[in-house]
Structure formats: C-alpha cells, structure tokens
Amino acid sequence: MKTQYIGKPVSRVDGLAKVTGSAKYSADFKVEGMLYGYIVSGSIAKGRIISIDTSGAMSLKGVLQVFTHENVSGLPWFSIKYKDMDAPTGSPFRPLHDDKIIYSGQPVALVVAETFELARYAASLVHVSYQEEDFTTDLVKNMDQSYKAPVGKLGYVSPKSRGNADEAFDQAAFKMSGSYQHGAEHHNPMELFSTTAIWENGKLTVYDKTQGVSNCQFYIGNVFGLAYKDVRIISPYVGGAFGSGLRPQYQLFMAVLAALELKRPVKVGLTRQQMFTFGHRPVTLQQLQLSASTDGSLESIKHEAFSETSRFENYTEIIVNWSGTMYNCDNVKLKYELVGLDMYTPVDMRAPGAVTGAHAIESAMDELAYELKMDPLIFRLKNYADEDQTEEKPFSSKELIACYREGAEKFGWTKRSIGPRSMREGNQLIGWGVATAAWDAFQAPARAKALLSIDGKLIVSSGTSDIGTGTYTIMTQIAAESLGLKIEDVTFKLGDTNMPLAPLEGGSWTAASVGAAVKGVCEDVKKKLKKMAVKTKTSPFYDTSSKDIVFDSGIISDVNDSSKSISIVDLMRIAGVNSIEETSTSGPNPINKMKYTFNSHAAVFAEVKVDEDLGIVRVTRVVCAVAAGKILNPKTARSQILGGVVWGISKALEEESKMDHQYGRFMNHNLSEYHVPVNKDINDIEVIFVEEKDDIVNPLGVKGVGEIGIIGVAGAIANAVFHATGVRVRNLPITMDKVL
Ligand code: MOS
Q: Which Gene3D superfamilies does this chain map to (predicted)?
C-alpha cells in the first residue's frame, strides 16, 4: 500500500497543543526581567499635540519611561521612505514621529513599567493637550474628492473596460440600476496583537503576532537601523488575523523601541479597543447597471466603486474587476476611485474587495433575473463565462457549473417558487437566494528546508505562518506524502525568520506557495536517497536504475519487486550518512501564468426566514459548493469554508464599525457592540468540494480555500431576503429596520 496523506481529513497536527494550552502565542512568552508597555491612544481625529504631561506617570515607583514624540528621535525611519510588504502607495504611518495627529485613536505615548497593571494605571495619568483641526470622515459627503485608485499595492490591478457599455445599456430591452453601500468592519481576531522584544548582545529577538515574520524583520531593520541578521522574529501560533497581521502593527514598533532604549525585555499588547485603531475593511459605495436582451443574454455591465482611504496612503483592493470576468458580456465599464479621509488606512480583510464587489454584482444579477422573469440560477448559467474575457485567456480550470449543479441539488433549488413572498411558514417568510464567488489562485515564491535524520525523522521548515488555517497540518501531509514517510515521522515548523523565506500568509496563496516549496525540497531529499541507494555497495539497489525505486512508509523498494527493499534508516546507516539537508525555492510558472487565468469559484445557496412582523432575518441553511482545485485536507478545508460562511452571514446581517463623524471615531469598539453571530445565529451549513483537476495552476493543483468561502454569502443572503420579502436591501448589514 502506498502512503497517502494528501486529500485525507488528517486532524490538525497542532490541535493538541492548542486545546491543552501548550501552544504559545505571542503574549504568552515570558522572559526574566521583562517590562510591560501600555499605549496611550490619542483622543482627537486631527490636529497637533500641544503638550504631553508625563510627570504624574513618571513619579510612580516602577515606571521606567514614558515615550512620546518629544523623546523619540534619530531613528533611521525618519530618513528612509520604507514600506512594508503589504503597504499601499503613499507614506506609512510612523508612530511617535511628530506632534501631528492624523487619525482618532492614534498612539501618542508608550508607558513602560515593571508590571502591566502599573503601566496601565500610569497611562491613565498621562495628560495630552491638543489643538484640534477640522476633519472629515464621511465618504458619502466627500464624493466630489474622489480620485483614480493608483496601482502599486500587492495584488492590485486596475479594472479594464471593454466594448461600449453605455450604448448597450441605453438600447437594451431589460435593465436594472442600483446603489450599494457597505459599512466599515474590523477584523477582531480572538487573539489581541502583542509583541515581546528582547535586546541582548546586539541582537534583537521578537515574539510577535503576525502573518509574516520576514515582513516584520525588514520593518524593524529599516525603522531602527539594524542589520536584518540581527533581528529575529518568532511567531509560532497566531490566534486569527484575517489580514490584520499582514502589516506590522504599532505595538511591534513600541515594544522594540522600548527594549532598545531601556535595554530590557519589553512586552506591549493592544487592548480590544485599540484593535479598532489600525485598519479596517473600508466603507464603500457602489453603482451597478446591468442590461440584457429578451433571451436573457447580458448586454452590458457597468460597475463603479468608491472607497474610503486615509490621507496618507491609497488603500486599494479589487472590487469591480470581478464583474468583468464573472460573466460573459461584451460591453463592460468599470471604475474604482478612492476618497481620502481623516482616518487610519484601511487594511486587507478576508477576501478584500471581492466580498464587497460580489455582493453588489450578485445582487444586481438577481434583480435583473426578476426583470427577465428568469430563474436567477438559469440566468447565471445562460451568461456563464467559459473564458476570462478581461484578459482574453482561458481559465486553467473552472468547475463552477459543477458548483451550481451540486449545490442546487443539495439545496433543493428546483423546489423554489419564483415570486417574492411566495414561500412561508406561519408568519415566517421564506426566501432562497443564490450567488457566485470567484477569487484568484495566487502562487508566490517560497523557500523550504528539509532535514532528514538517521532516526528516520524529517523536519521541514519555512518562515510562513499558520493563522488558524491549517498550514502546519497540510505542510506535514505534503512532506509525508512527497517523501513516502509515515506522517508521525514528519514535523513541520514555521513562524521564525531563522527559517527559509516565505511570503506573507494571505491571499489564500500559502497552500500553493509554501506547499510547492515543501514538495520541492522533499523531492530533492528523495533524489539524494535514490542516488545513495544506487551508489552504496551494500545497498540492494547498488548499480541498478533509480527509476524503479519507490518510497513508502519509510521503506525504499523496487516498483517491480517488492522483496527488494531497504528502510531509509538502514540505507543512511550503510551509507554512513547521519543526516540529509536540503533547501529549495519554488515559484510560479511564468509561462502558465501568462497563458491562463487562475481562479477558484463557489456557488452559494442560502435560505432565510424573515419574521413578517419584526423583520428579523435568520439564515436557516447555507450550501456552499466550492471548486478550488485539489483539496489537500477536506477537514481543515471545510473549516475554512465554514468560517467564511459564518463571516458572510455576519457581514450580511450584523457586522459594522460605526463611525461617529462628529468625533471621527469608531464608536462600537468592543465585542459587545460590534455584532458578530453567536452560536444560535448559525444553523445548517453544508460545504461541498466539487472535483476540479488542475495540472496547470501549480505543482500541487491547489487553489487555496482561505477566502473563497466568504465571498458569495452576503449576495446569496440579500437575494434570499428579497425572495422572502420583496424588499431589495442593497446596503449592508441588512438590519431589521431596512427589511420592514
Ligand atoms: Mo488575507 S485578507 O490576505 O489575510
């Protein structure tokens, strides 16, 4: 029997450590002599600091320092225009740089003391006086300030139009127009951001919560003028991040600053309130106009989006581009603009842009289907895109039809009656909606190292991260399978800049990127073992062809003659080799990338029950059928999709960071007022992975599952709400006041 781990529902290899508490998160690291920092957040949205009175804090025994812009200077940061790996174009925020306040909640001081409690208390004694300036934080009121979104941020591509959408729209038989508004959202991972920095003998060791240890290493090196080799960032476990850990957060700067200045280890964490001060999913306004001919063929798609950003960076995400690839249509007009406001720069949040754009286009498609009196699923199939019309390229694979078919079947879509308000159960109006989702299948260059020891144990490492997505587990599976080892003999390590370079964990690209590197390096080890097998005199394979050698469960044997075999351990012993070490790099195939479009897809079906009197919407069933290439682990992959669907429900019905424009501040900055679903809000969720074979996208045939699960959910729910009630709610979240 051949060892086989890829495609199997292997339980999380880090599960035991996580549930027993032995997994250490960044705030769990304790060091001898450690100090604690507490950050003072500014209270105005814009202006200048006139003075900071730190005397009360400094007079307390056990308080070592209060860092402010007045006593922090001379960092190389101030002369280098450094950008982190996920920075948009513009000029990144520099903590404690000067007296300027550019957003509400901006960190203005760091109090460092012997205990956390003392630091927190001392922080309450720091008095800051400000000179306030006029500010504006309202996207709707500043639309006249919009400007074209510049390129330059990782993954951002300007939208491309084609044909003549205006003319086609004017002449079409059926049409719809709609405006869509999305509120801001904050990531709110369970684990708060925290950093412990240790400065010892000219070397800095930092435990940090991050989605990219190397990004933090470069950032710290550049900001503080340290050689990269003297900065080590360690981040073995991350308690959720969703994009909030893609950029270095300001507690990292603060902890390192204090450790360098005070020459003692320093820990700095953010409070839950402060988790609302470093980036969010932006408020957006969208306009959609679609038209179709009498047979239901799309004649034109016009999609424009306006998004808020800060005044110092142009945060961009792909919102409207999907509307040009999702459906077959010759006339497409797309536009995406930004509006700079007095707030912190938005930051990528799970399926950035796609989730926003998909809700609008999928809502609009539903609306036009009603105009045409066509079933919304049949309307989508009628306009199915067999190739990427934007880039004029075929897809490397696209099993979206199977998603529609298998999802519809599981959901029972054919039993749907077409008219709004046509299905009910007492005073519960029942609605069924469908939506489509698409996401890029990226691959970035990554490195991995393999170390096979004489005891038959393999350690593979790469400086990636596991934000709860299952990286540890799938990489262990890939390594075990690639080298034909038992999975219990394989350990995968990550989250350390001493390990080979890996990209940020984001964009659903880790399985493909780091997975390819792990596979590649294990194949290099395999080659070495084969060579050893045919070159070692006492080996049963001596002087034979290495082509016939197969690996299974730590045994090397002949494919034609299984009696001819030797264990890896014995082979290394007779060859007199104690260990085999290999490091290798894998990256995307540029020719394939040029010739094909790589997308994952999903079809989402949702059922809602709406209380006719109260307008309360409950999502009673969701079926999410996903085509994402090879599914490495159906158990962890299903969890990714479940999490995405739950968040989609949250986005559709509950989640919103409310800005008080009078103060320029998010008001519900806590988990009691920032609504997310509780267990009772979540009912049946079915996840289907349709078969999708793809030999082009990357060596593993994987497309990633981190984001595709959330993308179509809000659209499907909004469409179900219309089907139930006859009310088209275009602004998220769909709260009961909008339904009634
Ligand atoms: Mo994801 S928003 O790329 O962490």
A: Aldehyde oxidase/xanthine dehydrogenase, a/b hammerhead, Aldehyde oxidase/xanthine dehydrogenase, molybdopterin binding domain
User: What are the residues whose beta carbons fall under 8 Å from the beta carbon of 698, sequence distance 6 or more?
Assistant: 441, 443, 512, 515, 516, 588, 589
Q: Which atom of ligand 1 is nearest to the CA of 506?
A: 3
State how far the Cα of 83 lies from the Cα of 698, in Å rounded to an integer. 29
Q: Is the CB of 348 under 6 A from ligand 1?
A: yes
Work out the pLDDT band at 77, boundaries 50, 70, 90. Answer: confident
> Is 507 near ligand 1, meaning CB less than 6 Å away?
yes
Q: Is the CB of 352 under 6 A from ligand 1?
A: yes
- Tell me which of 84, 86, 246, 316 to substitute to probe ligand 1's pocket, judged by most ligand atoms within 8 Å of the beta carbon: 246
- Among residues 59, 10, 75, the alpha carbon closest in space to that of 256 is found at 75
Question: Does the pLDDT of residue 1 top 60, yes or no?
Answer: no
Cα 46 to averaged position of ligand 1 atoms, centre (Å) = 29
* 2 — pLDDT class (breaks 50, 70, 90): low
What span, in angstroms and rounded, lies between the C-alpha atoms of 735 and 653? 6
Burial of 144 (0-12, 13-18, 19+ CB in 10 A): exposed
Phi and psi, residue 76, nearest 5°: -55, -30
Give the separation between CA 400 and CA 381, rounded to whole angstroms. 10
Q: What is the mean pLDDT of residues 595-619?
A: 98
| pLDDT per residue as tens digits for the range 443-475 | 999 999 999 999 999 999 999 999 999 999 999
ipTM over 0.95: yes
Q: Which atom of ligand 1 is nearest to the CA of 211?
A: 4
C-beta separation of 520 from 254 below 8 A: no
- Please give the mean pLDDT across all residues of the chain: 97
SS (H, E, C) 8-28: CCCCCCCHHHHHHCCCCCHHH
The alpha carbon of 246 and the centre of ligand 1 are apart by a number of angstroms equal to 7
- Ligand 1 in reach of 245 Cβ (< 6 A): no
pLDDT value at position 706? 97
Q: What percent of the chain has pLDDT over 70?
A: 99
Which atom of ligand 1 is least distant from the CA of 350?
A: 2
pTM for the whole thing? 0.97
> Which positions are annotated as active-site residues?
707
Residue 80, Cβ density class (10 Å: 0-12 exposed, 13-18 middle, ≥19 buried): exposed
Binding site membership of 243 for ligand 1 (Cβ less than 6 Å): yes
Q: Which residue has the tokens 């409690």?
A: 117
- pLDDT value at 607 more than 80: yes
The domains found in the chain, sorted by start residue, are 31-134+189-271 (3.90.1170.50), 142-185+280-442+594-739 (3.30.365.10), 444-587 (3.30.365.10)
pLDDT of 153: 94
Q: Is the peptide bond before 540 cis (omega within 30 degrees of 0)?
A: no
- Can you tell me which residue has the tokens 């990209």? 503
Cα–ligand 1 centroid distance for 247 (angstroms)? 10
Mean pLDDT of the 9-16 span: 98
Report yes or no: 605 and 366 within 8 Å, Cβ to Cβ. Answer: no
Does the beta carbon of 355 lie inside 6 Å of ligand 1?
A: no
269 lines ligand 1 (CB under 6 A): no
Reported as a pLDDT band with limits 50, 70 and 90, residue 128 is very high
CB 447 within 8 A of CB 503: no
Q: How many CA atoms lie within 13 A of 524 on its CB side?
A: 20
Q: Provide the phi-psi class of 554: left if phi over 0, else alpha when psi is between -120 and 50, else beta.
A: left
Q: Determine how β-strand 684-689 pairs with β-strand 147-148.
A: unpaired
Tokens coding 119: 């630091």
Q: Which pLDDT does position 81 carry in this prediction?
A: 72
Model confidence pLDDT, tens digit, residues 533-590: 999 999 999 999 889 999 999 999 999 988 899 999 999 999 999 999 999 999 999 9
